[in-house]
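Researcher: Here's my situation. A collaborator sent me these components and asked whether they could plausibly form a single complex. I don't have experimental data yet, so a predicted model of the whole assembly would be a useful starting point for our discussion.
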Amino acid sequence: MIIQRPKGTQDIIGKTALKWQYLENEIRKICSEYGYQEIRTPIFEATELFQRGVGETTDIVNKEMYTFLDKGQRSITLRPEGTASVCRAYVENKLYAQAQPLKLYYLGPMFRYENTQAGRFRQFHQFGAEVLGGEDPLVDAEVIHLIWEFFQRLGLKGLEVHLNSVGCPNCRSEHRIQLQNYLQRRKADLCEDCQTRFERNPMRILDCKNKRCQSLTSGVPTTLDTLCNDCQEHFSQLQSYLKIVGIQYKINPKLVRGLDYYQRTAFEVLAEGIGAQNAICGGGRYDGLVKEIGGPPTPGIGFAMGMERLLAVLDMQKVEIDLETEEKVLIAALGDKARQEGFKLSGELRRNGIPVLMDLLGRGLKNQMKYADREGVRYVLIIGDEELAKDIIIVRDMKLGDQKEVPKETIKQYLLQNINNI
RNA sequence: GUGGAUAUGGUGAAGCGGUUAACACACCGGAUUGUGGCUCCGGCAUUCGUGGGUUCAAGUCCCACUAUCCACCCCA
């Protein structure tokens, strides 16, 4: 049996790799327009960072982390998400000394040990952005605006933005009491997971997908019902900002995200038609996180977008991506002398920005033509003994199917004038 | 962690107990010596995910394992 890639990983090749490049370019473009700087943090971190940052009660920490001991007996974890690392870097590099709010974005692989299915991988890729040091609802609005704008530019349709506020620690404790009171009598009817959640993290009972739990929680007090005045005000201001710029959203009082650090604003963007895993973007506010991992009290908000799922939506909606098909040149040389000349010429042309292929396998002319055809080459430069003798090169236009003799000295100018992607 | 489906050449696939494992595409070679895409001709799985079992006989039935896909939980 040949060695194959680990479960839940993928080789990104060919046309797909071009799509990734396209997306990455769009991401960098929009981030710079919104004033975000790139941050590159390690792919692995101390396990404790995620335990404290993401939260002990989360599925991520409980069952999905790639954790191992290194040779120094340190517990290391491949990052399952980006926010904790960014906050760690913020504290460690004292970025709070810079102009606030600090706006950072990242792009890269994340790792979660899960069973795979459509849209779920063990190594997947996220584009994420974080704003640290800004509490104003305008910050939240701008973050959501970036996401919205990004999807618009990609030409995606029919996406739903779900919005909720899960409150701050103050109103959360009130909510917890009300929720537990409400569910106390029916506790026994809850699913096994929710029985545990009842004590550890009752809020997450709200978004349990179990049908029985859902019916039990249909009239349950939501976090929106128990928001304190400040949180209420924050949430309504955010909404009015969103309305002003025409962002459509749905209030979803049961949207409770699976990461412990969220406070106040929580949101998800959902897409149809890509399988059961339909969240292509998720995020929220995490005002307590920086302090939690040992930094100064700093408000923060961010999101993460799943690249694979984004690509899946793009494919599903048949969005045409402009995969620059550049016009290439192939030098078809016949004989040793011609190969030497051709090799020399290839360097000169490339130095002028002309993409050049050469036959490297010593094929005959016929097969070089075939190779050129398969590689989508526009111009084949044929050099053989006859051409060497006359100091010319035959330039064959593969698209038009005609060819002409061009003096060797003017070949560069000729190509520069005729290739339209230079 | 749990459940379901699937596993035949580079790819898509026929075959569902009985002599040489269809077919298509791709690939390779050829059709007057130096010209691609179209056409024609030829080549291309001693073998059916792995291991075991049933049988006179197994790609075809049974069991286990592994992998893939989808789904549950949760999420990107």
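Model: Some features of this prediction you could bring to your collaborator: The first strand of chain A starts at residue 37 and ends at 38. Chain A has two domains: 14-168+228-316, 329-418.
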